[in-house]
Amino acid sequence: MVSGVFPPGWSLAQTSSPTEVPSLSSSQETPYQIGPQDVLEISVWKDEILSRKVTVRPDGLITFPLIGEVLVEGRTVGDLAKEMDERLTKFVADPRITISVSEVNSFRIFVIGKVDKPGGFQIGQYTDVMQALSLSGGLTPFAREGSIKVLRRGKQGDQTTFPFDYGEVLKGQNLEQNIVLQRGDVVMVP
Questions:
Q1: Could you read off the pLDDT of 85-112 as tens digits, one per residue?
Q2: Rounded-to-integer distance, Cα 136 and Cα 119, Å
Q3: What is the mean pLDDT of residues 8-19?
Q4: What 3-state DSSP class applies to 96?
Q5: Looking at the chain, which terminus has fewer C-beta neighbours within 10 angstroms, N or C?
Q6: Edge-to-edge order in the sheet of strand 108-113
Q7: What CATH topology corresponds to 12-30+106-189?
């Protein structure tokens, strides 16, 4: 039996084998995608009244003066700035919007099972499995270090399982197993 708690919608019964293990280099080329609870700093050139910090709601939306609700989840800051600029142009001449993510709060992963401190962790965008295990206080003496799994939920609800052998990676072998985690991933240590 697995100790710890899965996030909503997760199940071990729906796992499949990965067709391709994601690499660190391909992940780093992807621009950051905004997620719920992230804090955005939105600056409108020459308009301090409209410029503000907003927190992305759990439904992936923000509310901004004059233009109302805007879907931001899964988008890049450049894409979002372009849309908001176009929408604000109806009300403000030449708005020139700049957006930055001032707080990344949506990048949460879970480490469960035989680790010292199981639970959910707020991580940076390029955190790998070894780093996540370190955040959780490391493996307990009873952990099966060769049977660790990373569970990832896809956008369509499908679940993929990535095997991880702690001992091999610690020895510098099969380092491709030490994948970069994505928001919502679950590292399961039996």
A1: 999 999 999 999 999 999 888 889 999 9
A2: 7
A3: 43
A4: coil
A5: N
A6: 15-16, 159-164, 148-153, 186-189, 108-113, 119-122
A7: Outer membrane lipoprotein wza fold like (3.10.560)
Model pLDDT for residues 132-171, shown as the tens digit of each residue: 999 999 999 999 999 999 999 987 889 999 999 999 999 9
Where does the chain hold its CATH 3.10.560.10 domain(s)? 12-30+106-189
CATH architecture of 39-103: 2-Layer Sandwich (3.30)
Q: Cβ distance 70 to 80 under 8 Å?
A: yes
Rounded-to-10 torsion of CA 96, 101, 106, 108:
150
| Confidence band, pLDDT 50/70/90 cuts, at residue 29 | low
